[in-house]
Amino acid sequence: MTDPIRMFFQRQMGLRPRPADAVSARDPEADERRRLHVAACALLLELAHADEEFSEDERIHIEAVMRRHFALDEDTAQELIALAQMQRKEAIDLYQFTRLVRESYDLGQKTVLAEIMWGLIMTDGQIAHDEAYMLRKIANLLDLKPGYLSEARKRAASDDMTA
Q: Which of its termini does the chain have fewer beta carbons within 10 Å around, N or C?
């Protein structure tokens, strides 16, 4: 069976299917960036599913975030979400996603991700206990201190009020 992540990378870089390390040899930075995109998207999806309800508003929010922050077109964003959803379902836990983000993102990027996460769980107008718990768990795995998480929540709430 072909690795879906590899196929996604190959399509995005305009490559024909090649051996496993051919993609990385061509552009390792693009490969790593796309892995980060999948990991960040999988974390957002995990958060969106934390309350056992994945609403259309949450899906739209995630797609908009993928397009805006990763400079993706609509089709690529939707494909990334589908791929991240599949990876999320196959994952044993969050560690494979949080490890990659923790090691690759600086404090500012982690804080922006936390702000995006708060915005996501605020899309339905309420913060479910399970969603808040999952967000704190993810932030902890990202080594993001509670003060930064609190500031991200305030910014997400103020952005929500001005939108």
A: N
